[in-house]
Amino acid sequence: MSENLEVARALREIADLLDLLGERFKPAAYQRASRSIESLTEDIAEVAKRDQLRAVPGVGEAIEEKVREFLRTGSIDYLVKLRAEVPPGVLELVHIPGVGPKTARRFWTDLGVQNPAELRAAIDAGRLVGMTGFGPVKIAKIHAALDQATMAGLRRPLLEAARVAERIVSALRERAPVDQVEVAGSFRRRRETVGDLDILVTSAEPEKVFDVFESLEGATVALRGPTKETIRTSEGWQVDLRVVAAESFGAALQYFTGSKDHNVATRSLARDRGLKINEYAVMRGEERLPSATEADIYRSLDLPWIPPEIREAQGEIEAARSGRLPALLEPSDLLGEFHLHVAPSVDDAALAQLAGAAHRAGLRSIGLVPESDAEAARLGAWAVKRTSPRVLVGREVKFGDPVPNSLALPAFVVWSAAGVEPPRPERAARPHGPTGWLGHLGGDPETAAGPRRIAAWVDWATATKMPLEVTSGPGYDGLDSVSLRRFTEANGRVVVSELGLGTERTRALAVGTARRAWVTKASVLNAAGWP
Asked: Is the pTM of this model over 0.70?
């Protein structure tokens, strides 16, 4: 599966370079093909062997030739040629928030600016003053983006984004005159990593909402208009807040949730029906159709509401049209919560609070993971007194190591893959011991090594029928959605875990990762209270 990411990155770089060279239509085609290949649940090389590359959305004759060239040689001559035409630092300018390809091209061709350092020097020397389209506010915004480029340009883990989003949404609900509040964008789709945050609200007093928004601790205002305000948080996050009319909330939420490819597909369906969909409404000529909820938007297309986690133009629209949308996993489906690490400092009172919270959440059993043999014995003595929920004590064991003897028999074992190279599938053999699954897969989904590592573990687990773990840290601790979908399509079973003392946030994020991979409760072992 690592080739998928490498091919996708090559096509994405072609798109960026073409944009810089002023091409109008080609960049979008390469971007779409890149996204499609990155999201494939099987190796692109296998698709090529079957001569089915054209079936991948966005792959036409020209792109198919380049994909085959990359698979054959590890390079694309066309990409090499484009790289020779554009100074490498200019491509870095594209990824500075507020710049983009067209603006980067102007800096390059009009000012001779070829990298972020030269752009900063040009701003400091006043060379942008007087350029068409560059007023004091925009220049200041780009300068601030350069100051925060080391953070603002990054995509960061979903769980990190959730902490920021939760804090801001909570403040808006408590302090601002808002009626509806939703976080949209890739966060709502539960992508493994998030670049920035998009928040939508309805309110009759937008100015008061913006006053609260910009007064948040550590916030720096980058832009404020009548319906939108942008801030930077102290952690370097860009957060866009939009105030929309209640009658447009469904249209705005659907539009700003994305993905881009999903929205392109829904707008194509709308055109086929003589409709027009934008972020404000569904229109039939001059007639405005109901647009207050997302269900209104999909109903106008004769579709059921499609869960945001699967809006990636990866078959969800076809499934919706034919009535085959799966019933995705819900937080309420989880009857057991396992891999709850417990430190020695957690006393019986805190454990009782945890058990009580689990009971209120509808869990029938929880699994505690101590750090030492002594802690295992202490927790075991406490657990036998609990009945609702049932408390199990397990152990986390490095893959390949023996199971500790601290308990007569641990109720379960989490085999940790952290720092362990995946075995080859042809040497498949499950470790001996009690019921268990493989966790801490480890790997950054934004690097080639991360997906390659997880793909290798998926191949091994498929061969051995070893369950794998899904967590609130997809791609870093647990399965990313692409690998997870490939695993469950091969009849793999999973355990959805929180990796902590249990919070509603982490449970929802772990379930969101599973939903993004089209997982139903039939594939989730702890949806049956297991083990």
From this structure: yes
